[in-house]
Amino acid sequence: MAMDQIEVDETAALAVAGCLFHGFSDASRLAIVRHLALGEHRVVDLTEHLGLAQSTVSKHLACLRDCGLVESRPQGRASMFSLSHPEATMNLLSAAERLLGLTGDAVALCPNYGLPPAATAVSGVRHG
Question: What is the pLDDT of residue 93?
Fold first, then answer.
């Protein structure tokens, strides 16, 4: 394989990895994924447990399904949602929690992707 082909393949692989992490980039989607780690749930179960609007949960479930992270099966008039790859998903989230523990407040204080100052004050993250 030519060197330029390797670079293209690596660039494409990194772009796809970026898409995966973008799927996890919303706190509501993460909450849904964590709740689905407990087992199958209907949209109504998720809305009640997470305190989110039905439309919000449905939108995030559609995103997660489109990414191949969540699957559904019909049960009567409802759909039961579950993680497509529960072990791999939980391994990824566990690794993220370990990394967050190692970085301390740096991620929350990141000037590009961190929490806004008001949110970090509420969460107890120190500034400066």
Answer: 94
